[in-house]
Design brief:
Pfam families: DUF2867, NAD_binding_10. By secondary structure, the chain is an alpha/beta fold. It is built from 14 helices and 20 strands. The radius of gyration is 26 Å and the shape is globular.
Length: 539
């Protein structure tokens, strides 16, 4: 374990927590994975537990924490993981279960954790549950009832427990937020279940992490339930329309209709969004109930975050900031470091999380030197062309001009060299790393925003590898339809383009195709598909 701690965007200052050893269970999950770097930055000694530590090895903080292999259903393993621990963060909960067996299993795990904590001398347990109406347990959904029973087990145990209740957590990767995102982005007109009228009090993920971190640095142990939210509630339907406005989408119309069963609501979510039905079903059941705080008693124990709680619209803005700023990764590597903001997407988020990004990725190896390939890359466009069927580019240019775009008429400022902000036909140079990577941003008319990245790297045995990546951020249904419509053209243009750029480099210069070659496309396809994480793209 190293002592290097990451910077915290939340700037949490917790003198009472300095050096305290805390155990984070559920570090593979959405909240746990984002809490660990905040705890490290605040000065805690952090231990993480998992049934399989391999699930955590790719996290950027893995070498900065202590590790414990523990199945929470095995008392001896849990007790060993808690040795010399001051505070245990209990952040484990299944979204996929239902019925009495699921509820009983969750309760038994909570009992195991509470008992092991007492035997190991733990001083404080911190749990994150869900907001729900003030009604008998048997009237709640299975999902919400199990979470509340876990809280009760912990509160009745020997070790004091802070049992937080939170509603919809807003941040990229949160299942509730991803549902909001995908519904709003895909459906300009929504006819949905009756629970769209329910009152919800959301909370930004940064505020959840703030409260969790502070609970680990309390001067004295606390045993009570604390409800947390942003301080303002609204209908779920208005959350959808507010998100659409923040994301720059057209006005969304939402019409709630009574559907015959919660299960049907879950299937509706599963059909419209990429969220798996096993998660959508319990999520729909919990959304069928209001989720609003009953006061602000948490302020008696923990002060509000500096600057106050984050309003819903601001939380949405943070969650989609990379999307709206048009940030595109400028590395070919698979490894992406943790984001500076917990609301941003992480590589460890599920495949269905994050806004939709379409990519078309090609690679081509050849005998040309990286310098020769770079000369071709830097000279692309204008009179030098695009090393693929010219009639397709001309047709797309005419289509762009027909709707008020630039088309191919602008050409280039210089036939050989580029600099940031140069125009190249309908593209604009957004970034250039000489000898390595060129990033072009499209200024053509399309249902979203597009980039084309061309790069090169040397190979150990000589020669080079050419990289080519088209990236498209669709806007609503129009953008998705646009990408699907042009995919057949991509299948012709992009493989040919990659192949002929390398051939031109091997021939000694721009647009000098070796004798015996042509520009006809062949069946040579790379990977093309929908990538759900901004900045996490296959190479």
């Amino acid at each position: 374990m190293t002592s290097r701690h990451p910077a915290s965007p939340l700037k949490i200052d917790l003198p009472d927590g300095q050096g305290r050893r805390v155990l984070v269970t559920g570090a593979t999950g959405y909240i746990g994975g984002r809490l660990v770097p905040e705890l490290l930055a605040a000065g805690f000694t952090v231990r993480v537990s998992a049934r399989n530590l391999d699930d955590l090895r790719t996290r950027p903080w893995f070498d900065q924490v202590e590790h414990a292999t523990a199945d929470l259903q095995e008392p001896d393993e849990v007790r060993a993981a808690m040795q010399d621990v001051h505070t245990v963060y209990y952040l484990v909960h299944s979204m996929g279960g239902q019925g009495n067996d699921f509820i009983d299993r969750e309760r038994q795990i909570a009992q195991t954790v509470a008992s092991a904590a007492a035997q190991a001398g733990v001083q404080q347990i911190v749990y994150l549950g869900g907001l729900h109406p003030d009604r008998p347990l048997e009237e709640l959904s299975d999902h919400m009832r199990s979470r509340e029973q876990v809280a009760q087990v912990l509160l009745e145990g020997e070790v004091p427990a802070v049992a937080y209740r939170a509603g919809v957590v807003i941040g990229s990767g949160s299942v509730s937020f991803e549902m909001i995102r995908h519904l709003a982005e895909r459906l300009p007109f929504m006819v949905g279940p009756d629970w769209l009228k329910n009152r919800i009090e959301p909370i930004a993920v940064r505020d959840v992490l703030y409260y969790l971190a502070h609970a680990g640095a309390l001067a004295e142990p606390v045993n009570r339930t604390l409800e947390i939210g942003c301080g303002q509630d609204q209908t779920f339907a208005s959350m959808l329309t507010d998100y659409a406005e923040v994301a720059g989408l057209s006005r969304r119309t939402v019409i709630p209709l009574p559907l015959p069963a919660q299960r049907l609501s879950g299937f509706w979510i599963g059909m419209v969004t990429p969220i798996p039905s096993g998660i959508a079903l319990p999520l729909a059941a919990s959304l069928a109930e209001d989720a609003v705080t009953h006061g602000h008693e948490v302020a008696e124990v923990i002060p509000d975050p500096p600057g106050g709680l984050t309003p819903y619209r601001e939380a949405c803005r943070r969650a989609i900031e990379k999307q709206t700023s048009g940030e595109v990764s400028t590395t070919w590597d698979h490894d992406v470091l943790a984001s500076a903001d917990p609301a941003d997407p992480l590589p460890s988020d599920p495949d269905w999380a994050g806004h939709t990004v379409f990519t078309d990725i090609r690679e081509h190896d050849g005998g040309a030197s990286p310098e020769a390939v770079w000369r071709v890359i830097e000279g692309i466009g204008g009179q030098n062309g695009w090393y693929s069927p010219g009639w397709m580019w001309r047709m797309r240019g005419l289509m762009d001009q027909a709707v008020g775009g630039y088309g191919l008429a602008r050409g280039r400022r210089d036939p050989e060299h580029l600099q940031v902000n140069d125009h190249v036909d309908w593209w604009r140079v957004e970034d250039i790393q000489p000898g390595r990577l060129l990033t072009l941003r499209a200024e053509m008319k399309a249902g979203g925003r597009a980039w084309l990245q061309l790069g090169v790297e040397g190979l150990p045995g000589g020669g080079s590898r050419y990289h080519q990546r088209a990236v498209f951020f669709p806007s609503g249904l129009l953008g998705r339809a646009y990408w699907r419509a042009i995919q057949p053209f991509h299948a012709l243009i992009f493989p040919t383009m990659a192949r002929n750029i390398m051939r031109a480099a091997e021939g000694g210069g721009r647009n000098k195709t070796p004798q015996g070659t042509d520009f006809r496309p062949r069946e040579e396809f790379g990977s093309a598909g929908e990538v759900p994480h901004v900045g996490v793209e296959p190479a």
